[in-house]
Amino acid sequence: TFIGREPELAELAELLGRVTSTGRGALVALGGRRRCGTTTLAEEFARRSKVPSLHFEARDARDHKQELARL
To answer: Are the CB atoms for 22 and 37 separated by under 8 Å?
Structure first.
């Protein structure tokens, strides 16, 4: 069971509502300290929103070109 982070989920839902109503896409980047739950937050939002989603985690943020190629 997912507990907490309701303000963040609400903010993401608001953004999704704008995307849906305008037809304009948006890129969302979540950041935070390691192990603070950003991955779980993204996964839970994707599950609740029931829209297609893509989750990609860069392994080494220092080598952007390599990570983009991996994506």
So the answer is: no
- Return the closest-CA partner of residue 28 out of 66, 60, 56: 56
- Residue among 55, 54, 50, 47 nearest 20 (CA): 50
Tokens of 64: 């952007």
Contact 17, 28 (CB under 8 A): no
Q: Could you give the C-alpha distances from 21 to 6, 16, 18, 25, 49, in angstroms and in order?
A: 22, 9, 5, 10, 15
Residue count of the chain? 71
User: pLDDT 10s digit of each residue in the chain, 71 long?
Assistant: 678 899 999 999 999 999 999 999 998 888 888 888 888 999 999 999 999 888 887 776 677 788 888 88
